TrEMBL record:
<feature type="domain" description="N-acetyltransferase">
    <location>
        <begin position="18"/>
        <end position="185"/>
    </location>
</feature>
<dbReference type="GO" id="GO:0016746">
    <property type="term" value="F:acyltransferase activity"/>
</dbReference>
<dbReference type="InterPro" id="IPR051908">
    <property type="entry name" value="Ribosomal_N-acetyltransferase"/>
</dbReference>
<dbReference type="InterPro" id="IPR016181">
    <property type="entry name" value="Acyl_CoA_acyltransferase"/>
</dbReference>
<protein>
    <submittedName>
        <fullName>GNAT family N-acetyltransferase</fullName>
        <ecNumber>2.3.-.-</ecNumber>
    </submittedName>
</protein>
<dbReference type="InterPro" id="IPR000182">
    <property type="entry name" value="GNAT_dom"/>
</dbReference>
<keyword id="KW-0808">Transferase</keyword>
<keyword id="KW-0012">Acyltransferase</keyword>
<dbReference type="Pfam" id="PF13302">
    <property type="entry name" value="Acetyltransf_3"/>
</dbReference>
Length: 213
């Protein structure tokens, strides 16, 4: 089995409504089709990388290529884990968590998106809670970071609900114009105080060396 060679394929996170796992090719194709249908209002660009401004077919292909590239580049000192989010048997989005020099810094950052039809259902909170449980409980993280543009109210609502605090601003160029984003940081105490969503983690033990643990 592939999980014998690449244990991350056996890692599964579960919340009351969601399952998060590394996608096989069929699930990855489903995620690409979801992205092809759009993940936000075209009038705005909520991501630092402007990948969704491309034609639908190019957007779908970029989802495949990004996932494959994270698998190929994986190292214990620098890793990016992109999980598909499954609700009622269908892929509804993706939740990522990544780190550099995790064994020393014990810090992760997260990013995610949902298909437009799946937004507004509370999935964003559950899927972020799942990877925070992986980070803090499973891997022993001390901090988690997030960042969103100032008009991304949904992302801020999730961060506040999960205990994040303000950590300054950054300025970026998006569609040729300057745009400010707000950084947020969650420490272990804040996570423990806001931890209300039950999460189970299966298959982590054989993956620990891959995370630098």
């Amino acid at each position: 089995m592939i999980a014998d060679q690449w244990p991350l394929f056996g890692l599964v996170l579960r919340t009351p409504r969601l399952e998060l796992r590394l996608p096989d090719l069929d699930r990855l194709a489903e995620l690409a089709e979801l992205a092809k249908g759009g993940v936000h209002d075209p009038a705005v660009q909520p991501f630092l990388a402007e990948w969704t401004d491309a034609a639908p077919e190019r957007v779908a292909a970029s989802v495949l290529q990004w996932s494959w590239s994270t698998w190929a580049r994986w190292q214990p000192e620098s890793w990016s884990l992109g999980l598909v989010v499954i609700a009622d048997g269908r892929v509804v989005g993706t939740q990522g968590i990544e780190a550099n020099r995790f064994a020393t810094l014990r810090e992760v950052s997260t990013g995610s998106w949902l298909g437009r039809a799946e937004q507004g259902k509370g999935y964003g909170t559950e899927m972020r809670a799942a990877v925070l449980e992986l980070a803090f409980t499973g891997l022993g993280a001390l901090f988690a970071r997030s960042e969103a543009f100032e008009d991304n109210h949904a992302s801020y609502a999730v961060s506040r609900k999960l205990g994040y605090a303000d950590d300054g601003i950054s300025r970026h160029v998006i569609r040729g114009a300057p745009l400010a984003s707000r950084r947020l940081r969650l420490d272990r105490a804040g996570w423990e105080a806001a931890r209300t969503i039950p999460v189970t983690i299966d298959g982590l033990e054989p993956c620990l060396p891959m995370f630098g643990r």
